[in-house]
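Help needed: design a sequence for this.
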């Protein structure tokens, strides 16, 4: 078991491509810490730097109080599981799991008993004499996890170990993995792009974007109290409503949020008013999650300044709930474009052949190739809201939505929270 500290860690590849920028993070002894972010954000690069498989180009990595930048991987007592659990094809499950113990010279009888016990915990005890090619993907991944755990490392690193499995198996395995690493009290760093995995498994988590660590906290802290608009959108399913607004102070009423054709008003006694008043007359981004708005029955009263309205454009049935999309005429925001640092590009001359390959595939220069990034799959012209059972409107209906102002989030034009973030 060990503490992991990243102190201003950078990773810059030859040619100037920045993969990780000034990451400052402490992972405590025995913690299950999840690094979450879209593809290409630098999370696997951080994992590989901790393992010693990537050179650190700036800052320091500390393992249990010792600077480990130049420590060889074999001396870090780290075990790693990759997306595809690579097993030795000529060895049985038992042989694969025993391999680390054989290398370290453990007593064979004790090692065998240890393997059987761990295989039982992983649910593969009936297949320990089978070869990898006879196993399903989930069984192979269980064996790979067992091989990593068997040697009782100080640090356990997992790089998207469930991403290639089907949804049902992912759910089953994430519960098992979390239980196993917690029972072993092994410090674990787990990388994923899946927000559900991160939220359900992590003691704490960090959200990365373009190599920058945007937020760190418990899953509940980050969901309820996100530090940036990108974090709020990335951890939101169904998608959060991100609305453009201008903030005005109105005497005798409070802080008015001018949303174009509609208005919301925050009373002066709201504890956030003191922080928000500094943005008087300036554009802000208002974040409203779908469960923060509730349709009002026709004719029902609602406090002034707490209602938005729109025309239902689409309905979606999700089994346990309905979602509605209402055209409200309010300008919206794309979280992937807010507060994004300029990404340095490697000069084309230092990427031989890349431009031609990209042009052949996409018919455009490499510099113009789109970068896909999940941030909630926001439908940019609509308000998204949940519908209570039995109260479903029809397409084309106009609806009034009562907004729970206490749960509304406020961000500056740079994408950072205006009101204090509590950790």
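Sure. Designed sequence:
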């Amino acid at each position: 078991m060990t503490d992991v500290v990243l102190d201003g860690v950078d990773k810059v590849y030859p040619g100037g491509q920045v993969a990780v920028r000034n990451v400052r993070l402490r992972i405590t002894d025995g913690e299950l810490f999840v690094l979450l972010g879209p593809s290409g954000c630098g999370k696997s690069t951080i994992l590989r730097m901790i393992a010693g498989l990537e050179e650190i180009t700036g800052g320091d990595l500390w393992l249990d109080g010792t600077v480990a930048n130049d420590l060889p991987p074999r001396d870090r007592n780290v075990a790693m599981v990759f997306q595809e659990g690579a097993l030795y094809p000529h060895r049985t499950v038992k042989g694969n799991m025993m391999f680390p113990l054989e290398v370290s010279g453990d007593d064979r009888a004790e090692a065998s008993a240890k393997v059987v016990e761990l295989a039982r915990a992983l649910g593969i005890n009936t297949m320990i004499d089978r070869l990898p090619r006879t196993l399903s993907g989930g069984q192979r991944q269980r064996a790979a996890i067992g091989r990593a755990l068997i040697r009782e490392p100080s640090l356990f690193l997992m790089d998207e170990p469930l991403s290639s499995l089907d949804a049902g198996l992912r759910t089953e395995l994430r519960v098992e993995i979390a239980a196993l690493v917690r029972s072993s009290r092994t410090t674990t760093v787990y990388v994923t792009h899946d927000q559900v995995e991160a939220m359900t498994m992590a003691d704490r988590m960090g959200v990365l974007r373009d190599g920058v660590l945007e937020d760190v906290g418990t899953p509940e802290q980050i969901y309820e109290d996100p530090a940036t608009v990108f974090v709020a959108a990335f951890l939101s399913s169904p998608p959060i409503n991100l609305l453009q607004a201008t903030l005005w102070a109105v005497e005798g009423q409070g802080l008015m949020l001018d949303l174009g054709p509609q208005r919301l008003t925050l009373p002066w006694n709201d504890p956030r008013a003191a922080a928000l008043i500094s943005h008087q007359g300036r554009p802000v981004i208002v974040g409203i999650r779908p469960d923060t708005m509730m349709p009002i029955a026709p004719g029902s009263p609602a406090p002034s300044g707490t209602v938005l309205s729109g025309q239902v454009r689409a309905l979606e049935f999700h089994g346990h709930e309905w979602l509605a999309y209402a055209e409200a005429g309010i300008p919206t925001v794309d979280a992937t474009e807010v507060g994004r640092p300029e990404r340095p590009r490697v000069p084309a001359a230092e990427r031989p052949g890349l431009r031609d390959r990209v042009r052949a595939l996409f018919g455009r220069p490499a510099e113009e190739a789109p970068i896909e990034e999940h941030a909630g799959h926001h439908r940019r012209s609509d308000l998204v809201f949940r519908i209570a059972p039995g109260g479903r409107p029809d397409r084309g209906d106009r609806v009034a939505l009562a907004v729970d102002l206490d749960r509304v989030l406020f961000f500056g034009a740079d994408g950072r929270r205006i009101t204090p973030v509590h950790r």
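Confidence is low (pLDDT under 50) at residues 344-379.
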